[in-house]
Predict the 3D structure of the following.
Amino acid sequence: MTPEETPLFTVSQISTTLKDVVETAFAHVRVKGEVSGVKKAASGHIYFSLKDEQSVLNAICWRGCSRETGNALTDGLEVICTGHLSTYPGRSNYQMIVETAEAAGEGALLKLLEERRRKLAAEGLFDASRKKKIPFLPETIGVVTSPTGAVIRDIMHRIRDRFGRQVYLWPVLVQGEGAAQQIATAIQGFNNIPIEGLTTPNGFIPRPDVLIVARGGGSLEDLWPFNEEIVVRAAAASQIPLISAVGHETDTTLIDYVADLRAPTPTGAAEKAVPVRAEIKAALDGTKGRLKDALLRLVLEKRVRMEGLVRGLPNLADLTHLYTQRLDDKTEQLTQTWNAFIRRQTDRFALAARLLEANSYERTLDKGFALVADTAGGLITSAATAQTKAALTLTFKDGRLTVAPKRPKTSPLSIEQGDLFSK
């Protein structure tokens, strides 16, 4: 074929043809390789490369890819990407448009798990100081798990057997695409309930006192949602004490490190959430008996001590007899003193009465004297005064006599010289 017969293409025609061929031939592929050069653009798209020992394949994960896919795109992690191949004419290269990505095998998952564990531990999310105490007897328990299967039945059955409490289930997927987001949303949803509870059209929902996040056993891939950062951070941010119960006793996920308490199984979580009613009753009965015995011992000890103190006290009668005798003596002395005082007083009053009697005017009258008074009873002590009265009363020892005074004819001296009274 001559050069003139060779088909002539423009650059764009070649690019378009190659694009059609590549996208048609590789419309759905799965590629295994090691992630390298991860870069998240401002647009939200993730650019990276898949490589093996010999080749490198550019790849793009458009904005909006699942969180699980984005988390799997970690440098050095071997993954399996699902999507299709395309070309980028502007750079004349081909690339893979990744729709989903998952760690390739258990070894890759374990590597990613360890790197994530170290990262979260460095942030202090696993510190023991952050752990909250699980309430001894919660009123309400919130459970985050699948609504079907044995897990929720085992939890409910165990709680009813031990100490029946009110249980609220937030149903979620526990594995597969979207499971991690649902689990994180459930934990946040329970925490968003106000402390006083929430009234809804379907009734009143109280805020749980404790949360149980649980699922049954499974492979590392099955349990992977509980290793996702979104779940771990939601559990760490929970203000409600949280018990993790994921897988079997030998299984460990990152939520176990951040939970306030880890249970080996969902049934074990129920046992850690509530005590056994019969055991509490037995403990209370035992405490009641011990308290009763202690009180009886205390009363007996006090009684013995009191009896010992009583024996050490002197006889009350012996103590009081002496003071009673002294009181009798003082009483007798007081009586004698009082009687003597009364006698002395009586004698003094008698003497005074005799003196008063001896010096009374009546005794003076007995001696021949008379008491002169006017008709109003006023005493007359001088002749001059008597001359001024119209009448006088003379009191003798044997009676009274009314007289009129005789008026003097010459001088006042005649009062002493002449007769003073006339009948």
